[in-house]
Amino acid sequence: MNKDWSEKNKKMQALISKEATFDEGIKLLIELRTELFEQISFIVKTFPPVAFYQLPFGDGEGNHCTTLAWSLWHTFRIEDIVSHELILKNKRILFDGGWQEKTSSPIITTGNELAGDTLIEFSKKLNIKATYDYCKAVMDFTNEMLEHLKFEDLKKTFTGEDRERLVESKCVSSDERASWLIDYWCGKNIKGLIQMPFSRHWIMHVEAMQRIKNKLCQQAKKGVDQIAYCGLSCGHCFLTSWCGSCRTIYNTCSYAISSPDGVCPNTACCKEKGLDGCYECDELYNCKKGFYALGKDTNAIRVMALFIQRHDKKELLKVMDTIHSKKKFEKIQEVLGYDVEEGLKILEEWRGN
């Protein structure tokens, strides 16, 4: 489990356990949820539609042996049921907001019963944009509920009538992989539900989504040129574990995600000119497009492109391998500095090693 998220969750649980610090604990809980939802937003906004119904880890055990689409649906369908049907009694966002039709979901359950091909088919049917909007609506309504909670509410438990109400709603499948959920929820008080599903459950599935997206990126990069259009050596980038590079559909490079349609100006320009990369362009040295517009902060990337122009891509990769084997650093600027000529000189010196 992510150490920061785990520590925040642990601190939040301690704070809400005391009346004097309860409000502070709820505030921390909502901050944690906001931070986790930012990770979800990043995935939804940067990954292609095909990514959401892939099973990169196969049909096995573990939260990561699912799809991105299922993870979205499952996490927030459970929260909708628990916070709005169980606690608030029949305030059902899925139905009240018409979200089943908007998301094109063929089910109203949590999805625990799905596996293999049925899981993939379900994921393909979901409208991801609408599902994301449903998730946000559920989160916002739950946050509002949490903000109105009182310390004494934490001890509230649930009755047999509450259990039967959930059973009758058919919000949970009768399949053995899912049927235990209602007894699990009804066996807890509200304090217990804050841990599962309002916080720890989120952490589990956001971490699983991160593993899925990273695996998809690594699979996409196999056999693909690891020199980016701008000249950056993707395999040596500190973001390489979660970026599929600009030569795949899983491009989550920091500059790409802030550019129209997820395509950075350097990539767009090269494709327009029919170039393999900026290193084939005569205007490279003084270019102000994309990464190069950032000046000294990204001059190290321009240096790599110029080095390729003088030598070739294989030579750059050899030099980068040598540098990384002998120096510990995160960003290439730490080695090549911020001046183009000085950076080129440094690369040439390393080439001679």
Question: What report would you give on this structure?
Answer:
InterPro entries: DinB/YfiT-like. This is DUF3795 domain-containing protein. This protein is an all-alpha fold and 353 residues long. The chain has 2 domains: 3-214, dinb family like domain (Four Helix Bundle (Hemerythrin (Met), subunit A), Up-down Bundle), CATH 1.20.120; 224-351, no CATH class. Helix content is 55%, strand content 0%. The chain contains 16 helices and no strands. The protein has helices at 3-16, 22-46, 68-87, 93-96, 99-103, 116-125, 128-147, 160-169, 180-186, 190-195, 200-221, 265-273, 299-310, 313-326, 333-336, 340-351. The mean pLDDT is 94.
Can you tag this structure with a few keywords?
353 residues; mainly alpha; Four Helix Bundle (Hemerythrin (Met), subunit A); 2 domains; 55% helix; 0% strand
CATH class of the largest domain: Mainly Alpha
Mean pLDDT, nearest integer? 94
In the CATH hierarchy, what is the architecture of the largest domain at level 2?
Answer: Up-down Bundle
Using the CA coordinates, give the radius of gyration: 25 Å
Organism: Treponema bryantii
Protein name: DUF3795 domain-containing protein
InterPro entries: DinB/YfiT-like
